[in-house]
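User: I'll paste a sequence; please echo it back and then give the predicted structure.

Assistant: Echoing your sequence first, then the prediction.
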Amino acid sequence: MTTRTPDTGAARRAPWPLARVLRDRNAGLYLTGVLVSGFGSSALGLAAGVWVKDLTGSDGLAALCLLALWAPTPAGPALGTVADRVRRKPLLIAANLVPAGLLLTLFAVDSPGTLWLLFAVLFAYGVAGVVQDAAESALVAAAVDPGLLGDFNGLRMTANEGMKLVAPLAGAGLCAAYGGASVAALDAVTFVLAAGLYAALRVREAPPRRPAVNWRRQTAEGARYLWGHPGLRPLVLAGGVTMLCAGVGGATLYAVVDALDRSPAYAGVLYAVQGAGSVAVGILSGPALRRLGARRFGAAGIALFAVAVAVRAVPSEAVAWASGAAAGVGLPAVLIAALTAVQRETPGPLLGRVSATANSLVFAPNVLGLAVGAALVELTGLRLLLPAVGAVLLVTALALARRPGGRPTPSPA
């Protein structure tokens, strides 16, 4: 069991939820860690695609960088079980230090023939990310007041997505000046710094109980609880469809840049614009969740994202900027709503498995979307593909908005 070390003082005296989150020591350390590691991850995420595009000239291979990062997501239920079998704070630290070491091997990538190493490291990076997300969700639920989870998750999204304002541009510029390996080294340093910040968290953890069932049954318990919860299931399914469409749309990024007659590095500008929108929704998500509820808040975000994706087919820089800002506001809404609901509605001993299962159901479709998008971007035009994706998103938003709430099933714990 994980317990929070009481932090008397400013955090308790602050009258507003947002101020209470910002003044809480654990929350501050964690959000700083997200900022640091998010800078490196955002920089590498774009630089890897630019790196491959420069070496091969292929939009499809550049999009496969994102596919390699997301490919481990379907294994989330099994990987997330790790977070319920070991102490979560040391696991979180290790999940930052291991990829830091692997990233340094990318100095060997200097030709199309060595790209296999880049894809392999990106895949391992993705595995570490799945484990890290499960450990984070369980640790945060114990370290932050349940009433503040919506505000905290919004600020976390703000911190993470806010890095798109500067990190992609910095990564693309560093890659252009010194090569992709320099961005990998920067990312490794940010991982080490984040691990140090997480080590300073004041959270007491008792030794995990010896499981009474095997790994497979433990994993199944998390999936069974999530699927049997009538409040969580529709949110998670809507999030999965949204991320499927986001994957298809994301794979068209370099084609959109080509339509604007810009260099591949211009993708960093569009990332930055989207990050600005995500900063706004992250700050407002706590009050919006309390006012609208998770289901309506998520549905409104999906509807806005649908319009943003559809209009991206117009070859105009002004439209591309407006679309990016709207996507930044709309896409995170259902993700924040689903994550907060999982943390609030799941018993602590199950939280690692349930959160990892939810992440897999939400983010694994992004892998399929990226693969489909990488193929379709070479075969079909943006004017047909992007409006079709927007239509699917609008249907998803309507279905979620009209879905009635339900009472949770009893906890198997």
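Residues 2-207+214-402 form a domain with the Growth Hormone; Chain: A; fold (CATH 1.20.1250.20). The chain has 18 helices and two strands.
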